[in-house]
Write a structure and sequence with these properties.
Distance between the termini: 43 Å
Strand order of the largest sheet: 6-3-7-2-8-13-1-14
CATH superfamily of the largest domain: P-loop containing nucleotide triphosphate hydrolases
Number of helices: 32
Shape: globular
Largest sheet: 8 strands, parallel
Strand content: 5-15%
Helix content: 40-55%
CATH class of the largest domain: Alpha Beta
CATH architecture of the largest domain: 3-Layer(aba) Sandwich
Length: 800
């Protein structure tokens, strides 16, 4: 970049001097984005990725015509907060601050949902959607809600003027509903709604219209917070000035909106549409269900910043996976019966319903076919699950089921994961007469039924359209990129169904598991103007570009995009860290056996010795094992053999994990034992003297026997070559987890620490070695040694 350009981006840089590589990072992002391209960047702790990406975004938004806004997505809550804080630092020195907002979900913002006002058993999302729909009906210009003269006066707008031809609501009606809901301070029985440290102007109980408010005289539940938003012409009284340095988060948005009486989620949406920089999570970019919120601000003039991009592949795979629950199929069938039942009660009813369906080009017989299909699907479901459990568990069906069924989820594959053939469900459907025409027409039938019920004023939360669409996708999607199975999600119930005992233990679903997310990632990234995908662990970058669709984006025949990559090395002083490979035989299931204390085979004894030597070393020690079972074994061994306190991390709640980390870093030195795939080995900072050594034992591969994992491996082989399938699908993600784990130690230029990997698979040129998948500079730093030298090497490092 030219010298004048450098000065321009420095105007937006939040600190006096950039880190060693930060200059280069900022310029690379700007140069690539101005070419409408994407930069894939690995930068370890100390690179300053967050500030660099925000500085580049600020420059591109303010100083070019190419970008209007930027969206930041990260799956780590701590990182979202870091982006907010860095944007505030940038704004603190600008005369015209950039408008910023951090997005959260309805459940975090809904005043009623936060205080458990909704009836038991109803989700915040569903209840909120119902209330929004009811409120929209009441404020509609066509509704029969009465409006007195005092409400006709226009209030001061909190939004940009909306063209009259686009308005279907009457703001005065919104103000009528707000006034009706406002709590009378003199009414001692009207308990106020308190949340987020503020009191709303409404009672805790949800309001409804009174008989005299409408011509029909009916009572209708509604949301006063939503009504207030309409009363303000879809505006927000909460502004960017409410946030610290013009960046609004839940901490400012929620209490202010509650006290004023407007919907916090709607206020957030208004701010989002006017923001320069929006901070969210992966759902806001990759999940169809969440994209409806962000869709209005995303286009070819949007810059995208994807943080923790090493997790993108797995996260998007989960978001692209669809399920159809047994009870959801039952609800869809019941939706159709709401139309069919009255039609079967008389010829005139049937003629009326036929006419309504015909208006949507759906014959009555198609609804009957759809109902029969869902009925048969439920019966197939029941038989399939019953047969599977009888095959797997000896006592199932004997009256002793509760003693034999596991309290964990069960996968029931519907095809051989290694053979992309049609699944058992699809084959069954064809055999009984349900082919592609049936699957494809289900969503159309569902929509016609829903609209017919609306015309009859039948208030019902229908699912038949959505379920029909999913069955249509089941038929259309191929059998390589999507793996079909039944998932039994453990959910113990009190009532016992003797006829179908599995229902007492599991919720059953048909699953379309996404095996290959690269095409969807490419498709989404192609919608935007450019951006950066960054993480501390993206190497090997060439493979990252393949599996995330970036390579296809760069080689697209019609409109290829610029894709560049860059790896930055750790800049903290090398003398402050030691990096060792402990050369012992590979820690494989075949040679280590079961993780039981009585198992004293030679492999386990050797690893127990290594763990003991590391745990006895100076300071706080983090030991990461391939899974939680191995971690438990190691912790139990260490408790018998060392004097230091030993803490064990197991799969647990977020709060329990935070409490365990607090216990670990306070007080006397301790050993914390966990899984390399756990939450304490990634996205967690151990600062100063909180962590001195991190050791990773073995390769943390996911369960390679799982049908889903085998299907993913096949799909990767089909796309990237059979010789690469295991490496791309399993080994590379595991290596990134390892590097995330030992990256917890040494988080600043003045910190000292030791990074260790244990096992011969880390040694170069050994069988199935993963050495080549580490960045070149990192490989150079790791020194190979035998376990017997650990004690002396620790002593030399800490005494130097």
């Amino acid at each position: 970049m030219s010298e004048s350009s450098e000065v321009t981006w420095q105007t937006y840089f939040g600190f006096s001097d950039p880190y060693e590589n930060q200059n280069d990072v900022i310029e690379n992002i700007i140069d690539t984005a101005q070419d409408s391209g994407y930069l894939a960047m690995e930068g370890p702790c100390g690179t300053g990725k967050t500030m660099a990406s925000l500085t580049a975004a600020s420059y591109l938004i303010r100083e070019t015509d190419q970008f209007n806004n930027a969206i930041v997505v990260t799956p780590v809550k701590q990182q979202r907060q870091q982006f907010v804080e860095d944007l505030r630092v940038i704004n603190s020195q600008l005369e015209e601050p950039l408008a910023g907002v951090a997005l959260v979900g309805k459940r975090d913002l809904c005043p009623y949902g936060r205080e458990d006002v909704f009836p038991d058993g109803s989700s915040v999302q569903e209840r909120c959607d119902d209330l929004r729909e009811a409120t929209a009906d009441l404020v509609s210009e066509d509704s029969n809600l009465k409006v007195q003269q005092q409400f006709e006066t226009d209030a001061t707008p909190d939004s940009s003027p909306i063209p009259e031809e686009e308005k279907w609501w009457d703001p005065a009606k919104g103000r009528v509903l707000v006034e009706n809901a406002q709590r009378d301070p003199m009414d001692e029985d009207a308990s106020p709604l308190h949340t987020a440290g503020r009191t709303a102007p409404y009672a805790r109980n949800q309001p409804s219209t009174t008989p005299e408010m409408t011509e029909s005289g009916n009572r209708q539940l509604y949301c006063p917070f939503e009504a207030d938003w309409y009363g303000r012409d879809k505006g927000s009284p909460v502004t960017f000035e409410s946030g610290d340095n013009h960046v609004v988060t839940t901490e400012e948005l929620l209490p202010n909106a509650v006290e004023i009486g407007t919907c916090p989620h709607r206020a957030m949406t208004v701010l989002m549409k006017n923001a320069d920089i929006v901070v969210g999570n992966y759902n806001h970019l990759f999940d169809d269900a969440s994209r409806h919120l962000t869709a209005p601000i995303l286009d070819e003039q949007t810059l995208v910043i994807i943080d923790e991009a090493h997790r993108m592949e797995e996260r998007v795979r989960d978001l692209l996976t669809d399920t159809i629950g047994y009870y959801t199929v039952k609800r869809a069938k019941n939706d159709l019966e709401q139309v069919l039942r009255p039609a079967r009660q008389g010829p005139q009813n049937k003629r009326d319903i036929k006419a309504r369906l015909a208006a949507h080009d759906v014959p009555f017989e198609a609804v009957e076919t759809a109902e029969a299909f869902y009925d048969d699907v439920m019966e197939w479901f029941e038989t399939q699950v019953d047969d599977e459990l009888r095959d797997q568990f000896e006592q199932y069906g004997t009256g002793l089921s509760w003693n034999s069924l596991p309290d964990e989820d069960i996968e029931v594959p519907l095809r051989d994961p290694d053979e992309p053939e049609p699944d058992e469900f699809t084959r069954w459907a064809e055999q009984v007469g349900y082919g592609g025409d049936t699957f494809r027409m289900l969503s159309k039938v569902g929509l016609a039924v829903e609209q017919a019920l609306e015309q009859e004023d039948i208030d019902r939360d229908c699912v038949c359209t959505a379920v029909g669409a999913l069955f249509g996708q089941w038929w259309e999607r191929d059998h390589v990129d999507y793996f079909r199975e039944i998932e039994l999600e453990y959910s113990r119930k009190d009532d016992r169904d003797v006829e179908k005992p599995w229902m007492n233990y599991y919720n059953a679903s048909l699953v379309m598991y996404n095996c290959m997310p690269s095409e969807k990632i490419k498709e989404i990234l192609d919608e935007f103007g450019g951006g950066v995908l960054m993480s501390a662990t993206l190497e090997p970058l060439s493979i990252f570009e393949e599996v995330t669709g970036l390579e296809e984006l760069a080689t697209d025949e019609e409109e290829p995009r610029v894709v560049s990559s860059r790896t930055y090395d750790l800049t903290f002083p090398e003398e402050n860290r030691a990096s060792w490979i402990v050369d012992v035989e590979a820690f494989k299931k075949r040679n280590r056996g079961e993780p039981a204390l009585e198992n004293t085979n030679s492999t386990r004894e050797r690893y127990a010795y290594v763990a003991r030597e590391i745990a006895r070393s100076h300071g706080n020690i983090l030991l990461a094992w391939p899974n939680y079972s191995e971690a438990e074994w190691a912790a139990n061994r260490l408790r018998e053999e060392i004097e230091k306190p030993v803490l064990l991390d197991q799969s647990s709640s977020h709060e329990e994990t935070r409490e365990l980390k607090r216990e670990f870093v306070h007080g006397e030195p301790k050993v914390l034992v966990t899984s390399t795939r756990g939450t304490l080995t990634e996205g967690v900072d151990y600062e100063g003297d909180e962590l001195h050594t991190c050791a990773v034992f073995g390769i943390p591969l996911v369960n390679i026997g799982s049908p889903r994992v085998r299907a993913v491996q096949y799909a990767y082989g089909d796309r990237f070559g059979a010789e690469n399938s295991f490496t791309y699908a399993l080994t590379i993600p595991a290596v990134r987890q390892i590097r995330q784990a030992f990256g917890r130690v040494i988080r600043g230029p003045d910190e000292r620490g030791v990074r260790i990997v244990v096992g011969e698979r880390f040694v170069p040129d050994t069988l199935h070695s993963v050495y080549e998948y580490f960045p070149e500079k990192e490989r150079e730093e790791f020194v190979r040694m035998k376990p017997d030298f650990l004690a002396s090497q620790f002593r030399d490092f800490w005494e130097s």
